[in-house]
Specification:
Strand content: 5-15%
Shape: globular
Distance between the termini: 44 Å
Strand order of the largest sheet: 4-5-6-7-8-9
Radius of gyration: 22 Å
Structural class: alpha/beta
Oligomer: single chain
Number of strands: 10
Number of helices: 15
Length: about 400
């Protein structure tokens, strides 16, 4: 749920509690549902959305170097993203900007990247890796592409597991989610009836549904569009219940279907890739594995509490490395999701929509203090990492 209630973002939005009469909630899709569904799954941008994509809320004319190695273009075309970057950094003299779509290789100029879900067998948990390449090297990436397709398909299947848990229903999941969130019978049944309609629309329009739309957030988007029919507090409660169901479903997903981190790293290194561990605060043990990586992401909007500490740990690790070994580098990831930029402002996640490609706290005084001790800064990281990718 956004930190700021959507009711506070939309002047005139209803704030009073208004649970629907279930007799008025259909189980079969209506014509209005069909139109709603088409809007939600569409990846085509309207002129208004294109304008949002290329127009940042603020600019950074003094920033001369742009380093962005962890961001998600989603369905926004790269030419629009390029225009946004030109507007964001009108004074930029040097850029190293590489997209990292989830489990899908995408390219931006000379470089390509991907954020891969994989499995750390030593710690029995899912982790993620950022892979970066010279674009021309992907001509040989046949095995890696197959691995990514498998992983992408597996991740997409979570949506259907999510829906099945509610539709069947799987009482051990929906009951626990309702208990955790205080969702009453009306809320639970309201969600189930809406998913019955979504399921019917998916089945009827399957051949025309863009595969990029088959994500868990499809359900969240659907219910956000119903705020005009019901009160914001009620839809907020629905979204809280949905998130609880999703968390329980994901916790039951088998990790065996993911490739091991070591397998992904081996295949990536064979293609001359650079490899970065993103937001390690979410899975600390991975830093103990000493995987063959180029560095750690010490700052991310989701993982920023221990940035200075991580820089100091990385510095100490480098001091203990053999002279012949390549040092680990400091990275920062803005984790921008471009799909968030083109949404109607009333439906944006305020925290996610505030992120910008290439905007990271390299010059924050506390972080900079540790970076100086570690002999790291944005210019050095850009030069060294570019040399590794081009070598």
């Amino acid at each position: 749920m956004p930190a700021t209630p959507l009711s506070a973002l939309r002047p005139g939005a209803r704030a009073a509690w208004s649970a629907p009469d279930l007799d008025s909630v259909p189980c079969e899709p209506t014509e209005a549902d069909g139109q709603r569904f088409a809007r939600i799954v569409s990846v085509d941008l309207s002129p208004e959305q294109e304008l949002r994509a290329v127009t940042p809320g603020q600019t950074h004319p003094k920033q001369r170097r742009v380093l962005a190695l962890h961001w998600h273009p989603e369905f926004v075309p790269m030419p629009l993203i390029a225009r946004r970057l030109d507007a964001l950094f009108p004074g930029a003299e040097e850029r190293l900007v590489i997209p990292t779509q989830h489990n899908e290789l995408t390219s931006f100029g000379d470089y390509s990247g991907v954020e891969v879900d994989c499995y750390s067998s030593g710690f029995n948990q899912k982790i993620q890796l950022l892979l970066h390449f010279r674009t021309e090297r992907l001509e040989q990436a046949h095995t890696l592409r197959q691995m990514l397709r498998h992983t992408h398909k597996y991740r997409s299947s979570q949506l259907f597991e999510f829906m099945a848990a509610i539709l069947e229903p799987r009482q051990e999941i929906v009951g626990q989610a309702a208990a955790q969130t205080g969702a009453d019978e009306t809320t639970v049944e309201y969600v189930r009836r809406n998913l019955m309609r979504i399921d019917a629309l998916l089945a009827a329009r399957w051949d025309d549904v863009p595969r990029d739309s088959l994500k868990n957030k499809l359900l969240a988007h659907w219910f956000d569009t119903l705020r005009a029919e019901h009160s914001d507090p009620f839809i907020d409660r629905v979204q809280t219940y949905l998130r609880a169901v999703k968390a329980l479903v994901k916790a039951r997903f088998s990790l065996d279907y993911f490739y091991r981190a070591s397998e992904v790293i081996e295949e990536a290194r064979a293609l001359g890739a650079g490899i970065v561990i993103p937001h390690p605060e979410q899975f600390w043990p991975v830093l103990l594995a000493e995987y063959d990586v180029d560095g750690w992401e010490v700052w991310n909007p989701q993982s920023s509490r221990y940035t200075a500490f991580l820089v100091s740990v990385l510095h100490e690790r480098n001091r203990c490395r053999p002279r012949s070994g390549r040092p680990l580098m400091v990275f920062m990831g803005d984790d921008t999701h471009m799909g968030e930029k083109v949404k109607d402002p009333a439906f944006r996640n305020p925290e996610k929509s505030a992120r910008e490609i290439g905007v990271q706290p390299w010059d924050d005084m506390l972080v900079r203090k540790q970076l100086i001790l570690a002999s790291m800064d944005r210019a050095r990281v850009m030069a060294e990492y570019r040399a590794r990718l081009d070598g």
